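Known limitations

Files may contain more than one protein. Parsers should not assume a single record per file. Below, a two-record file is shown to illustrate correct handling: read the sequence, read the token line, then continue until end of file.
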Amino acid sequence: MFRTKLLIVFIILAFIALLQGSISWWAINTAVDNVQRGRVASDLMTDFVELASTKQELRTWLNTAIEEKRIDLNERKKLQQKMQDIVSNLEFLTKKAATLDAVRGEITTEDIERVEALNTLKQHLQDINAILESLHSVDNNNISTLVLTDAIEKIFIHDGDNAYALLSERISKERLAVVRERAAADASLTLVSSLALGTTILLALLTSSLALYFARALRQPLAELSDGAYQLQQGNLQHRIPDNREDEFSLFARRVNQMAAELDQHRKTEVAARQHLEELVQARTNELQNALETLQKLDTRRRQLFADISHELRTPTTAIRGEAEITLRGRDKPVEDYKSALQRIVETSKQLATIIDDLLTMARSDIDMLALERVPMLIAPTLQDAILQVDSLARIRQVNLQSDIEDGVKVLGDAQRLRQLFIVLLNNAICYSYEYGKVFIDARKQEDKGSRYWLLSLRDQGIGIPPDDLPYIFERNFRSPSARQHRPDGNGLGLSIAAALVRAHGGHIEVQSQTGQGTTIYVRLPMYIEPHILLEDTL
């Protein structure tokens, strides 16, 4: 399995990388230790040389005092402090060198010699300080040459020869230590470079070998998978990818072969289904042709039916109106109590006659030829009147009407036709709502790109309209299956009449709906702008 092989390869590479890192870490630490030891040895040698040089400066100072027969105390103190600082630094470096040797687990003879030499030099420095302090009590401006010469003999002849020899010995040994530690540091750095180069070459060779191995091992299965994919792309579902190996590629090939077999079976099933569907379509076409002829006959009968309904309803409507007018003109009756009621009867009868005329017009296919009496009018009262007329229907169906109507907006319209439009839309919203649902009515003026219009938004929480039926809702007699199920007594004329009325007023109607989530109808009508206001806006 390629997965196991890859895992083994990654483990080997990780082990080699870890080994390389460990060796490099050890070699670098060794080199750093050698560098530090070499730096300490170099500093020790420098300080011993500096101490010898400072002691020589002290001798020069004493010779100058003999010549001038006076002592410069400031210069003496400066040289004393300088030698004291050098000895202190030598003591620090000696301890540091011993610490570095202790880290290695060894205390060398060289460390012991350094300590002994340092103690000797410290004692010699104390003797020098005592001799120099004894000169402090002498008159600086009248000092005896004999006193200064005695001081030189004590410092540089009696004990000085031993101190000078000791300093020379330490300088030589520290110089050898510097050379030795630098050589050790160079050897450590050379070892680091060699290890890095060796492991890099090893990793490069191993990686190249593994890449070559996997390239050869993957070439054939990948070629077989690529060829199989190409055959499937060309539609050759009978092709099968070889799957006789025991690896991931064979497992994938078996899955692809199974998929190809299933696709081939689905294709055969699809061909059979298509043939069956063509037979059904042909049979359905014949049925539709027969249905079309039947519908043409039914349409003729529908037009006749509308004409008959219009004729039959006009007579009783005229009688009701005549009786109401006579009642209103009567002198012998006290008519003030019910005069307004009779007036509404007259208006309702007129609206009924108008609707009947509309039905007759629709039966004659000329709904767009409605005659309107358009005048500047406030549209809010007409909408509110329509809401009052459908309020009883809303209460019966337990639907709550909520309105937000902006006053003072004028349109150029026919009040009677607009009332009919609003009643149709409100009636639809109520009848196709669920019990305890709400109908939201919002009307206000809008402005878009310099165009002013009045926008009515009427949103219900009813059954909604399926997306497939939306393109046909303004066609005459169209009713969706869900509408027939919810309200069997409808006739499919409401929205057709509403669309015709909106077009007659130069407006636009739009419907947005989703099944089960209600319907929103937007009616946009041009606003009427008073001439003087229009002139002011133009100026």
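...continuing to the second record:
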Amino acid sequence: MELLCSSTKPTKNARLRFTMQNDLDILRQVLVENPFEDPSRWQSINNSINAITGKDFSVRATREHTEYLLKLFAKEDLSKLRKSGTEESYLEKERLLQEITDLKRDFCNKSILKPKLNITSKSKKEGSKTREAALVNCSNKSSLIAVTNITPSNIETQVDDNQDCQIVDIENLHSNPDSPLNPEESSSSSSTLLVPYKSRKRNYNDQQVKSDILKYLRERSDKENRLKEQQIEIENKRIQLKEQKLLLEEQKYQIEKEERLSLIENMKNQQQLLANVIAQLTTNKN
């Protein structure tokens, strides 16, 4: 089966056919320029073919005809690959198709393979930064809680005998917190509170709160890091399996390639032997 191409020339109903020689010219040019690396090279290939053959094939027709020949070769449909031509043309065509198939496979494999994911250290650094930021926020929030939660109701009035104390006017303290404490002014207030000056004992422990929050943050960060490490390990295993599959396919392809080359060589030897027998019979008749 031959692929037909509509000519771009103004001649009405003109159609171009790919001959055996056209196939050889196209395959040689494809092998030289390698359009699988850069598809834009099909234009250059087509220009060269048109210059060589004197025909006016389109870029699409040249590309699709090349793909058609590669598909026939992959299916080992040698009968359709062989057109009118010599045995040498057949062998050269099959050799070119084999080399182009190898070239195409190599560039396809390069585009599929990707580097392994190696982001464990990056994840740990991100987790460390997140934990440090959380600790800073926790410290600020704890200080804010310690300040805002101080009220007259939660201040204990335990005073040691050796401690200096002052009488604090609660009403004046709330209305004007910046004013200095004056024992004489505060003595006339009806609502007073005895507060230790050197030390104040609160009904909660700020250090314990900080410790609990830090412990929780560390546990959560460790859990997230373990989860990320498990995900990375699973992804690495998946990539490893994919690479093993590609390796097996490559080995299978190499075996098939050797078998195909061996078959071509055997056919060539048989044809040479047959030619020798025919030549000998012709000589005997003469």
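Parsers that stop after the first record will miss the second one. For reference, the second record is described as follows. Residues 1-13, 114-120, 141-199 have pLDDT under 50 and may be disordered.
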